[in-house]
Specification:
Keywords: Lyase, Metal-binding, Zinc
Protein name: Fructose-bisphosphate aldolase class II
Low-confidence stretches: 146-153
Number of strands: 10
GO molecular function, one term: zinc ion binding
Largest sheet: 8 strands, parallel, barrel
Order of helices and strands: HEHEHHEHEHEHEEEHEHHEHH
Oligomer: single chain
Radius of gyration: 19 Å
CATH architecture: Alpha-Beta Barrel
InterPro entries: Aldolase_TIM, Class_II_FBP_aldolase, FBA_II, Fruc_bis_ald_class-2
Bound molecules: glyceraldehyde-3-phosphate, 1,3-dihydroxyacetonephosphate, sodium ion, zinc ion
Organism: Mangrovibacterium diazotrophicum
């Protein structure tokens, strides 16, 4: 069956790697995640956002995730699978997921005041722990896709708050803000420098903040959201096949590799998968305009996604061979 994150995070922190948290909302994404994680023998966190639940139906997604455990075994290797609510924003949503078979939830109270965040997170933790479910909280706000110029420094996680927060809430892991953000446009060209090949190089993550956090709560599981790298090959392929993605910049893999070796034990990736699928679908549509069987474009999208996830597990997160 599904497992919570407790043991997985302990092993990941001790082992100096991070467990992939991949978002899904359809069949092909789930197939790609499970195939990639079985083949690389990696534990995996299946993430469902509230938007994904609305889009795909909560009952269907829950049963797909349960089926995925069986599917993984059929593929020939048993891997730990977590079903996790991504960015839960209310107690009611978290409770609904806990009541319906999720093994882990995130309560994202980071947009509230510090004390309100604590109160909300603690309430979720009490209910979740009574049901064997682990909880991820968040301190600090990730920059939005659009508000990149607004007070970017004031929203980083404050190391002075983390110990108090984890003690008072009882959370099992903590998402932090050290310069990542959601989506495919994490930095504006103005925030980047250009290398010799004209490639935009974003400002580095605030590793000094991460180190300070690790000093305050040694060995405590840390989560990195907004960790897509926005591979240039997908952006180029999308744009070469009729798409229009200007100035898409992500987090360089080298920095994620470094983060994975620290107490960061869960790395969230959604946008890269979206780019991989879109690139593959656009390619089929341009190269085979007569094709109208969804399997003929969703199949290649699934295969590209699987390749991407295998690469992440093996080359970036270090989660391969850890299951
Ligand atoms: O953090 C956001 C995830 O990428 C999920 O995005 O709300 O569009 O499903 P979504
Ligand atoms: P990306 O948009 O960088 O893939 O981040 C995903 C995420 O943090 C989901 O919670
Ligand atoms: Na780690
Ligand atoms: Zn996120």
């Amino acid at each position: 069956g599904l497992v919570n994150t407790k043991e997985l995070f302990k092993k990941a922190v001790d082992g100096g790697y991070a467990i992939p948290a991949y978002n899904f909302n359809n069949l092909e994404q789930l197939q790609a995640i499970i195939q990639a994680c079985v083949e690389t023998k990696s534990p995996v966190i299946l993430q469902v956002s509230s938007g994904a639940r609305k889009y795909a139906n909560a009952t269907l997604l829950r049963n797909m995730a349960r089926g995925a455990v069986e599917y993984a075994e059929e593929l020939g290797y048993k891997i730990p699978v977590v079903l996790h609510l991504d960015h839960g924003d209310t107690f009611e949503l978290c409770k609904d997921c806990i009541d319906n078979g999720f093994s882990s939830v995130m309560i994202d109270g980071s947009h509230h005041s510090y004390e309100e965040n604590i109160a909300l997170t603690k309430k979720v933790v009490e209910y979740a722990h009574a049901h064997g479910v682990t909880v991820e909280g968040e301190l600090g706000v990730l920059a939005g896709v659009e508000d990149d110029v607004v007070a970017e420094h004031s929203t980083y996680t404050k190391p002075s708050e983390v110990e108090d927060f984890v003690n008072r809430t009882g959370v099992d892991s903590l998402a932090i803000s050290i310069g990542t953000s959601h989506g495919a446009h994490k930095f504006t060209p103005a925030q980047c420098t250009k290398n010799a090949d004209g490639v935009l190089i974003p400002p580095p993550l605030k590793f000094e903040i991460l180190e300070e956090i690790e000093k305050r709560i040694p060995g405590f599981p840390i989560v990195l959201h907004g960790a897509s790298s926005v591979p240039m090959k997908y952006v180029d392929e999308i744009n070469a096949n009729g798409g229009s993605l200007a100035a898409a910049v992500g987090i360089p893999e080298e920095q994620l590799r470094k983060a994975a070796k620290s107490a960061v034990c869960k790395i969230n990736i959604d946008s890269d998968g979206r780019l991989a699928m879109t690139a593959a679908v656009r390619k089929v549509f341009i190269e085979k305009p007569g094709e109208f069987d969804p399997r003929k474009f969703l199949g290649p999208a699934r295969d590209e996604l699987k390749k991407l996830y295998m690469h992440k597990n093996v080359e970036v997160l270090g989660s391969a061979q850890q299951a």
